[in-house]
């Protein structure tokens, strides 16, 4: 793999901002682009706001950020491309066509798409579809280590290995999917939880605040340390997961049959929105996100000093 010294960030919304801040903090040069009015000013202000909370390496600086008017100009001299455009296939195809023409043939074109399939995205890059893949971060990218690397039907092994190596060098925790599936892994798991959470509120079983408390002060604490399978294994004592599945498998299956199926009607949507407002009151979302990220940083620091998987 050619050493990555300059990254193109295409699309500088919330996810693009997080990627930009992380790349800069790791001492890389970043060439960014976004067609939205005022995008450059917003990006630079966002990086400046995040910078004090980033673990920057020696030589890292926000001054290593440049902003250009087009995706082609961003990709022209890049060693890696991270695309963060809108979740619309037609928009992605236009972007990837431009990136495919401008970037050197060996440069990976990674999309932050949270649900689109890389095989579909690669149709926008007919010259070199073998270097197109999904590199989906978990928000906020400058804090959360997870990156889901998803190859498409025509993605080369070299592109996959280059992407895994690049994200690992950033300090991320990349995982490779063995098959394409809408929503990848983490978002599908979240969707399953949200389905039942919304159903519990709709059925009047619990308030929005109660559901949040049940996760944040219950299983969410364990999930932040180990995943669902490992935690379930530990809950089985000496018998481990086999014991859990033998004794708690049947009641769990009964829970599955009783899980709610919901439709986001206008009424349910308003109930959920009102519930969040009741829970958080006048709390400033930006301030709450900063406090959350500070706790996450402490947690990640603590985990880094252990040999947890």
From TrEMBL:
EC number: 1.1.1.108
Keywords for this protein: Oxidoreductase
GO molecular function: carnitine 3-dehydrogenase activity; NAD+ binding
InterPro entries in alphabetical order: 3-OHacyl-CoA_DH_NAD-bd, 3HC_DH_C, 6-PGluconate_DH-like_C_sf, 6PGD_dom2, NAD(P)-bd_dom_sf
Group of enzyme by EC: oxidoreductase
All residue ranges annotated as the 3-hydroxyacyl-CoA dehydrogenase NAD binding domain in the record: 7-178
GO BP terms in the entry: fatty acid metabolic process
Family listed: Belongs to the 3-hydroxyacyl-CoA dehydrogenase family.
Name the UniProt record assigns to this protein: L-carnitine dehydrogenase
